[in-house]
Design a protein that fits this description.
Blueprint: H1 7-10, E1 68-79, E2 83-93, E3 103-109, E4 115-128, E5 131-138, E6 143-146, E7 151-157, E8 166-175, E9 184-185, E10 192-201, E11 205-212, H2 219-234, H3 237-246, E12 250-253, E13 259-264, E14 267-276, H4 288-291, E15 294-305, H5 311-315, H6 326-331, E16 338-342, H7 346-355, H8 370-374, H9 384-397, E17 399-400, E18 420-421, H10 423-436, E19 440-446, E20 466-473, E21 476-480, E22 499-503, E23 510-514
Helix pairs in contact: 9-10
């Protein structure tokens, strides 16, 4: 079953999101939503073609002097033997404060050639004495810097930029993204005159494409969407195609129209929004990116004798793909020949985690716990102080290496004391030791708050980047994270808070609301 709110899960489920928190919503002055199942018309922007009239754009509706204005933001996603992203952005710099937008930062995954930057170029335009002067930049002018885990930034600080300049940049990335593609955000901290995304889906694949504009679904809405998703699981392909075609490929839509889910297969689609005000901050604990209107792309299904052409993508559908080396997954027999991929239900997702050699299996390995238990007073049996002693042992015996992960890259019993470890390794060691000491302890997967809220209707692969511990003791629930040296056991790091985590347990799995005490 795909329905996520069951009698069992309700005992620990508290999916509130932002509907119980006050959020300042800024109304869009004007927007157009264009649904097309074949790309029509020309591209909205041409490289190197800047008109004199664009230099005269200095204001946006009620804002007479924004620091900068995005004239056009145009993206294209195509699924081939790689996922091909292209992005073309043009910005008018109005005054000194807008000069910060002359720094271009493009994130990409550097691990095992997951992302290859195929094209990168940038231009700076100035209007002087009735003529447009152009300065050109190329990939060789940029530099790559690490931004944590396997992510890097391609960075270029454009020169010759001044108030009144227009900048534009274009890049193409060949990626191994497949199950989860990059989100497209229509809004930014500065006004946007035109934002357009095009998405091309080949016939072997079915994608859920979610349009979300500042709305988080209530429990009733989640149940309705989950029922529709269950129908998608159960219906045969012919019936499914016919019904979706009648509904313009729309699987679910909220009453406000701010949350829509399309099912796309063997077609092209474009969505355009215009005249979008800039928003740099919102009230409450939602990240500003969670508020921006956006599109999300999640693979629902692929089956059949897929050609070798698609093999690089298919391999990334393996649950623990990110923990394997390129050599490991290229030599694997998994996903060869006939391929049957379908989005997991939550129960399937939970079961696979428990059986995963780099996650659930690590919790039943024998760890040398002598040093940890020696620090526990003999009189303590199941007390808070006993839990705290184990927490402090892990906290002080290992040093977080700065990498958020949910899997352990090494066997936990092979990690020596005083060694560096990832967040997953440290907290899986903590949970293992807590269980050996007799505590009711489980892993809780979270998406750190800087990345925004997780998808709760269906499991999105790789959306979780961190694991913490939950302990149920004396009718109380304790959430523990050992990665920081200076935090007491009852205080979570800020990046863990104001989100919802998935408790991994054989029977009592479900969502837990994570907020400061």
């Amino acid at each position: 079953m795909i329905i996520i709110i069951t009698n069992e899960a309700k005992r620990i489920t508290n999916i509130k999101y932002m509907r119980t928190r006050k959020i300042i919503l800024v109304a869009f002055l004007s927007f157009i939503l264009i649904k097309s199942f074949g790309f029509t018309g020309k591209e909205p922007i041409k490289w190197g073609k800047v008109s004199k009239s664009e230099f005269e754009i200095n204001s946006f509706r009620g804002d007479s002097s924004p620091p900068a204005i995005i004239l056009c933001d145009y993206g294209n996603i195509r699924i081939t033997n790689r996922t091909m992203y292209s992005h073309h952005k043009r910005i008018k710099i109005n005054h000194q404060e807008g000069l910060k937008f002359s720094r271009i930062e493009i994130p990409y995954n550097d691990k095992e050639s997951h992302d290859d930057i195929m094209v990168f170029k940038a231009n700076v335009y100035q209007y002087q004495n009735g003529s447009i002067i152009k300065m050109q930049y190329h990939l060789k002018d940029a530099r790559s810097i690490s931004s944590g885990n396997d992510t890097k930034l391609l960075v270029l600080d454009l020169q010759d930029v001044m108030p009144g300049s227009i900048i534009e940049y274009y890049y193409e990335i060949a990626s191994l993204d497949f199950v989860k593609l990059d989100d497209w955000y229509f809004q930014s901290e500065i006004p946007t005159l035109w934002s357009e995304i095009r998405f091309e889906v080949p016939s072997p694949f079915f994608y859920l494409v979610t349009y979300q504009r500042g709305e988080f679904l209530s429990e009733d809405q989640q149940l309705k969407y989950a029922r529709n998703l269950q129908w998608l699981y159960n219906a045969n392909r012919i019936k499914r195609r016919v019904q979706l075609s009648k509904n313009d490929h729309l699987l679910y839509q909220s009453s406000s129209g701010n949350y829509k889910v399309f099912v796309l297969n063997d077609m092209k689609k474009k969505i355009v929004m215009r005249n979008i005000p800039g928003v740099s901050d919102v009230a409450g604990y939602v990240t500003v990116k969670d508020y921006y209107p956006r599109l999300r792309f999640d693979l629902f299904e692929s089956s059949g004798h897929l050609p070798w052409f698609y093999r690089p993508l298919i391999m990334t559908a393996i649950e623990d793909y990110e923990t394997r080396s390129r050599r490991e997954w290229l030599s694997s027999n998994e996903k060869r020949g006939y391929v049957q991929y379908r989005l997991d239900t939550w129960s399937e997702f939970n079961e696979k985690l428990l059986e995963n050699e780099r996650f659930g299996r690590q919790l039943i390995k024998y760890l040398s716990a002598g040093p940890a238990f020696q620090k526990i007073p003999a009189s303590d049996t199941g007390s808070v102080s006993k839990m705290e002693a184990i927490f402090k042992y892990v906290q002080k015996s290992f040093t977080w290496n700065g990498r958020y992960q949910i899997y352990a890259n090494r066997d936990l019993n092979r990690i020596p004391e005083n060694d560096e470890a990832s967040s997953g390794e440290m907290n899986l060691i903590l949970i293992n030791l807590l269980r050996r000491a007799g505590f009711d302890a489980d892993p809780v997967l979270i998406r750190t708050s800087n990345l925004g809220q997780p998808e709760t209707i269906y499991p999105v692969q790789h959306q979780f980047n961190h694991v913490i511990a939950v302990v149920f003791l004396n009718d109380e629930m304790f959430l523990l994270d050992a990665i920081t040296k200076n935090k007491p056991y009852h205080e979570l790091p800020d990046n863990d808070l104001h989100t919802t985590g998935w408790r991994v347990n054989k029977d009592d799995f479900g969502w837990i609301d994570i907020n400061p005490i």
